[in-house]
Amino acid sequence: MRVSQLFSGLCMAAGMAFASATSNAALLGVTPTEPTIDFGGSGIVDYNATTGIVTVSGIPSTFFRSDPFLFGQIAGATGDDESLITVQFKVDSAGNFVSGVDGADLIIKGSVDVDFDSVADYDGILLQAEVTQFGFENGPSGGDDAFDIRFGSVSGLLASFYSSHDLALSVASETSTEFPNAFSGSFTTDFVGQAKGVLGATDPQQPALCAVDVEAYCSVNGSPNKSKCRIQVTKSPKRWDWEDRSHHGSTYRRFTYGMHGDPEPAWSSRYNATNVLFSYVVTNTGTTAVGNLVIDDSFDTPVSGVPASLAPGASVTLTRTERLREGIEDVVIVSGQYQTAQCGDTDTVLIKDKLRDRRRHDYDDFRDKGERDNNGYR
Amino acid sequence: MKRSQLALGAAVLATVAAGNAHAALIGVTQTFPDVTLTASPYLIYDHNGVNSSTGRLTVVTGAAQLAEGAAAGGSTVTQSYFGAGDSIPDFVFNIDVNNTTGAFIGGTVSIGFGNAPSSARFLWQGTVTDFGFISPGGSGNIFDATWNVSDDQYQNMPVGLSQFVNGYLTGGLGGLKISSSAAWGTAANFGTDWIYGAGATTNPYLTAYTGGLTSPLRTNSTILADVFAAPAPVPLPAAVWLLVSGFGLIAPLVRRKSANRIAP
Q1: First vs last C-alpha separation in chain A
Q2: CATH among 3.90.550, 3.30.1360, 3.30.300, 2.60.40 for A2-17+208-263+272-353
Q3: Predicted-complex ipTM score
């Protein structure tokens, strides 16, 4: 039980969280929805391979929503008459998103008059946000290169139009006479290309799905698999110990049963022992593959045969036979991962004293040898 | 110098004879100046918009941004087709195709003046001369086309865009490009009616263009479209005339000096 509680804490701390940074060697497929902000062919997409910084810049044109109708041209902000859209973030040499930059990754500045009275209704920093995902596609011959970017942590004067949403930016980079060194599919060298794009709302990023189930069983002398088994208790040299472990940055204490590296004393052979077959059925109950599978139980030696991953719906049964002379509680812990999502499950199998009488609180389904002091409960 | 650079850009345009069918892109290279359709352009296709065998792709938009290009200074100006009480986008170009083969038949570019007469605004008109398309997986349809500029006019242009005077591009060649984040799939093609654009399923202001459509497929998609052109090159006959005239003026002098040397 203690391990179960610890594992629950582990899941709370690490398993159910998902990181904001992901990478894509393809387009994300996000579609900006209204209201949109766009910029035209004067935009530029620039990449510096030394710093790994991608910069998209342009002059915003309009702020638009079709229904209910909302429209305004984006002009220069009061004071410096500046209107701009800039995006900056870092990628690795394969184009995988690494991080944002100091300050806001997305900045849109300008002024917008949305009621056609020639007075700016929004004037200054219109939007700011942080990059969370980046995708790209090297276009076909004669076609456009494409980039798409997802943003979170939206703020600015127009942020209320995007509440409860992320932002998505679609960028097309045309083959242009002004930019002979445009994107060619590689992030190992610098490139500069023409760019035009549309920014809009998109549904928030959902946690990646990951689900796994484990059912633990025991069997004595070929009996059917059960969650509780009884053995004859004699005298055992094995003992409980604990170890502190780390899992995805969270530490927890795991309790294990066995000899812990010590030799088994000669006297133990004088006491009867029972071979107990433990079976752990691990099933991927989600819709995505589960990788980085880790299976722990309460014994001091590892479970063998753990697969690297499980396909959706797939199942694997792992077994181990332990020679036991006393009752134990075997807590089985399974954890796995899909992209940034962690998932896990636990189950417990009980080995109990075959000869011990049933007690008042022992409301299980076993038919015990003795039936004293149980008020007739079987 | 600026005109010669643009003329060179025009020469880069890969032009193909009109009338050909293209189940592939023409391969147009963007030049400047460039007009990007902003405020949500829509692709509206009527498979029998011209006649029973000819469909018409109509492109409408709410605004347009003219860019001179980075080499010329990078300035832009946006004109709007919306206004108080006017929520209907304007027609900017159409392309007619055979609704069975997709073969190009004809088309026009008609980027009109914006709605604000006291603001900077521009007009580009011309004839589409060729059209190509592909439907790559993952990034939606891409169309491109070439066109000839028959008229261009400008009003209230800012100082930074003073090169834009009436007729600046007239006679020049241009191109246009359209990309759609959503591909046709199997339901949309040149034999069916469809509308692609942001909010295509909800925009109530497209009815002015959709009356002739039969149960069009409406697909929300990010449309990025621009039209570009370059001034016509300086006519060759005039240049040749100047060159010949120059030679004509200096030729007698050369002959006279040579004669003096032979007979001192």
Answers
A1: 25
A2: 2.60.40
A3: 0.81
